[in-house]
Amino acid sequence: MEFTETAIKGVYIIEPRVFNDARGYFFEAWKKSDFEAHIGKVDFIQDNESKSSYGVLRGLHYQKGDSSQAKLVRVIKGKVLDVAVDIRRSSPTFGQHVMVELSDENKRQFFIPRGFAHGFLVLSDEAIFTYKVDRPYAPQSEAGIRWNDPEIGIDWPIDPQQVLTSEKDLKQPLLRDAELFE
């Protein structure tokens, strides 16, 4: 696997070595020793999966305080634009974001450490998205930032009128009004 740290320290794009032949393909999706050698120790405790259609935007979500989660995300089917936003007020990259296209073709993964908001936009007819987390979901710690916050300036590649999101995500606060990390 190739581990590439992005412009924001601690956020990585991971590209597996894929072995193709007449039968199909094989790759190691996650290997603890490689992960720890490049990124460090993260004790993943749960795998989650979602299925969404074109234009679905999930995010920008995070968990506050002691419930903050690190995530390792990838796409099993389809294509998404995945985004991590640094929401650590004391960070030199506070409010900045990193985007990566994840698909069943490129097989990339995206590691998002604690202290980041996360979201993705489905660019294919359908996408199956999976992710590992290092802490369980805690409803009382759930938080988010509005996906189209102009201060963050994410350039989502579809017309905003085509975005399908939840009522809850439409009502998320702007970055400047959100409860964030120090």
Brief overview, please?
With 182 residues, this protein is mainly β. Helix content is 6%, strand content 40%.
The total beta strand count reads 13
Main sheet record: 6 strands, antiparallel
N- to C-terminal separation? 33 Å
Total of helices: 2
Order of helices and strands: EEEEHEEEEEEEEEH
Describe this entry's structure for a reader.
With 182 residues, this protein is mainly β. The protein is 6% helix and 40% strand. The chain is built from two helices and 13 strands; from the N terminus they run ββββαβββββββββα. It has helices spanning 32-38, 167-170, and strands at 2-5, 12-15, 19-21, 24-26, 46-53, 57-63, 71-77, 79-86, 97-103, 109-112, 116-122, 126-133, 142-144. The strands form three sheets. Strands 1-2-10-7-12-5 form a six-stranded antiparallel beta sheet, with no helix packed on it. β3 and β4 form a beta hairpin. The longest helix is centred in the first third of the chain and has 7 residues, at 32-38. The chain is globular and about 50 Å long. It starts with a strand and ends in a 12-residue tail after the last helix. The model has no long low-confidence stretch (mean pLDDT 96).
Task: Please write out the topology.
Elements lengths: L1 E4 L6 E4 L3 E3 L2 E3 L5 H7 L7 E8 L3 E7 L7 E7 L1 E8 L10 E7 L5 E4 L3 E7 L3 E8 L8 E3 L22 H4 L12
Antiparallel strand pairs: 1-2, 2-10, 3-4, 5-12, 6-11, 6-13, 7-10, 7-12, 8-9, 8-11
Provide tags for this entry.
about 180 residues; five-stranded antiparallel sheet
